[in-house]
Amino acid sequence: MIDNKPTFNIRKIISNLLLFEALFGVLTFTIFTFIGFFNENLKISSIHFVKPYNLFLFVLLVPFTYLFILSLNRKNTIDSHLSQFSSKGWVKANSKWTIARFYILRSAFVFLIFAMAQPIYGKKKVKGTLKSMELVVCLDVSNSMNTMDIEQTSRLDVAKRALNALVNTLAGEKIGLCIFAGNAYVQLPLTTDYNAAKIFISDVSTNFISNQGTNISEALNTSQEMFSKENVTKAIFMITDGENHENENKEVYASIIEKNIQVCVLGIGTSTGGPIPIDPNYLGRGYLINSTGKRVISAMNPRFVQQIANQTNGTALITSEAYPDLQTLLTQINQMKRTKLRNLEFDIEETRYQFPLAVSLVCFLIWLLIPMFKDLRSKK
Predict the structure, then answer these.
(1) Do 321 and 373 belong to one domain?
(2) How do 174-180 and 133-140 pair as beta strands?
(3) Which of 49, 173, 184, 212 could form a disulfide with 133 if both were Cys (CB 3.0 to 4.6 A apart)?
(4) Are 85 and 189 in a shared domain?
(5) pLDDT band at 372 (very low <50, low <70, confident <90, very high)
(6) Residue 5 lies in a domain
(7) 3-state SS of the chain: helix, strand, coil percent to 5?
């Protein structure tokens, strides 16, 4: 007699699936409530997710389950037809193994989605090193910086471009601005407000200091007084055309070396130079002239720039480009920033994606091995 009883009781399976999902939902809700997910007052220490939007992938379980039920119904139809034409009877599929594999595969996907959402729970201690630097920009604003000997661009504008490129590389370091000509003044005290630094840099003009000249010694002295007493790396980034009109004070150089202040000097201008405009914004006003009525020609002095670097054990770079390549100088400054300040130990939130991911992989491995276990059991 042919058994026409269906292999899979679809109604019973659907009921079991709904019961399983309900139990799973209640268990998940209980666990999340226990660890404080729904408690707003404990939000800082409770479980939360880095990518919570990935939890919406649970919606895919609905069509996944529907396709499974559909496949079981189709399997019932196939088994029914085959059993009618089999002279020896038809060996039906084991419904328990099939349903078990579905539950395990479904669990693998569920825990994979939890892992993709990257749950965070609790904190762990991490050791780190705090690195910092104080950088004072020492900018020459003497009239000679108005000379347009670099592609019809003033040396001061080239200097501003270089400084903006420098500020864009900073990340947590303090920066200050000292301007100098015949005298030196603090334009911007040390700060980590880089937007403010850019504003001050863009506003700088040679009109800021009436006492003209290029007093390098006073500029370096004012710059080193801007530093704090903290035990951090200290550096001076000087930009000038190298026209020194004041007597040198070698005690300043010795003081910089003694305090271990690192110095980088950027010389801007060309060796041929050019005339100095009276008003860089309106060249129609003419150019500066000397006592003999001839135009004053300002040429960059690379020797003096290198001399400043040598006497402070620093680094010098000469440029005559409208958009200077400061990679060498920026590399030097970045190396300064790597000086270690102190070791720290601090707490960070710990990601727990490893646990649901491990469960998912185990479920997936079991899903793959079930047919093997089934065959071994049937041979006994």
Answers:
(1) no
(2) parallel
(3) 173
(4) no
(5) confident
(6) no
(7) 50, 20, 30
